[in-house]
Amino acid sequence: xxxxxxxxxxxxxxxxxxxxxxxxxxxxxxxxxGRIAAGHGARVGVAEARFWGGTCVNIGCVxxxxxxxxxxxxxxxEDARGFGWDLTPGKHDWAAFRAxxxxxxxxxxxxxxxxxxxxxxxxxxxxxxxxxAHTVAVGERRxxxxxxxxxxxxxxxxxxxxxxELGIVSDDAFFLPDRPRRVAIIGSGYIAVEFAGIFxxxxxxxxxxxxxxxxxxxxxxxxxxxxxxxxVAQGVRLHPAARPLAVTASGAARHLALADGSVIGAxxxxxxxxxxxxTAGLGLETAGVATHAxxxxxxxxxxxxxxxxxxxxxxxxxxxxxxxxxxAEGHAxxxxxxxxxxxxxxxxxxxxxxxxxxxxxxxxxxxxxAAARGPADVYLTRFTPLRHHLTGRARRVLMKLVVESAxxxxxxxxMLGEDAPEIIQGLAVAIIAGATKSDFxxxxxxHPTAAEEFVTMRTKTRVAGLAExxx
Length: 471
Ligand code: NDP
Fold this sequence. Notes:
Oligomer: single chain
Largest sheet: 7 strands, mixed
Bound molecules: NADPH dihydro-nicotinamide-adenine-dinucleotide phosphate
CATH architecture of the largest domain: 3-Layer(bba) Sandwich
Low-confidence stretches: 1-15
Radius of gyration: 24 Å
CATH class of the largest domain: Alpha Beta
Structural class: alpha/beta
Number of strands: 22
Shape: globular
Number of helices: 15
Strand content: 15-25%
Distance between the termini: 63 Å
Number of domains: 3
CATH superfamily of the largest domain: FAD/NAD(P)-binding domain
């Protein structure tokens, strides 16, 4: 251990500094950074005021996936009848599910604290703020550190309209005492469409209210069209091009008034209208750390802020707000600072999934983004998976490859369908390795699967970007 400690660069360390690195925020980014840095022999402190593991573990990805799975069982129980099972889904017990979920999440969250301690990091369960560029106030203590990392994440925001406080945000959705009968969700990003699927799957009536013509702005258009169809098939009422004006209450009921004069009645109004960086009250100004107008911390490729020995990573920087990006950044920064392995995380070709029913997963460029760069061959297939020939459930798969015409390189793979996240994770390796369509064609499929369609698409659906290229 002693020689590992000696490897730590002590150039910035002044007398009386207790830590080589102090991390503010014990979420995905902060815990990974603290744990790996401590493993490299650095003296590390990590402060977390709310819950270890942060948003993802406690009020994000992990409990969300459990909710998605809870919702799936209802559909599976119905589908089992198509296979000869004499099953009738009963009532879903929200309270029993919540207790089981809370128990699992508490265990996972505690393991994040234990991982840090096992690696030798000092943990502080208090709010921390910068007093100057080398000093952090943690509760009553003043701590000096050679380097400071800000990994405080973000929080969901509401629209600034009258009555907005009558609606909940995703933080609250995990602790509802009962399942609402009618839910109005505003937004059509990740959180909105995932919770629309969750509540619909559990038996709630869902209205999805959004300002775009299609949900999931920024994703491939074919995926967006297919998602709108899938939401309708699930019974979700879509309100595209809608603008909320106000929320009012009468007793427990809520009324969401829209600009077109219509009013949506609901038991729960749910704002899924984006997130903001957690930088208020952190002392960033005092320490001289620059932020964007939104409050997000400005960083360079090496995650340095405007103060060279102060770093920021994860959602607080508001670049690509995904847990695996945050953890990868934490790992890379620890290796760079203390592990003799300088590197940074590329934000190109980051695969991502949206846990709708069925889920979406995607890696690389959409057709439109590829076409903007030059001609692109598009391979597209839509089909009913084998299972649903027996269940009769309206659940079609969409699979799509976007290929650079000139080089044959696969630039994007997109899927809506069962197991899409599991399938696209593997394809992401091929795409990052620079696989061409001919590499896909030479790969033998696994039969019978949906995944095999990705290696058996032989007929071009269209060539995109030709007009742009000609012009
Ligand atoms: P998103 O940024 O994905 O979506 C925000 C939604 O709110 C969009 O539909 C947006 O519309 C709408 N919106 C924003 N401002 C307004 C406005 N003034 N009026 C009307 N509508 C508005 O944020 P989310 O809250 O869904 O999620 C936050 C982030 O968390 C995501 O970006 C993602 O990075 C991460 N996340 C990842 C998940 C995963 O990996 N599966 C799951 C959940 C979250 P418009 O599109 O028109 O801007």
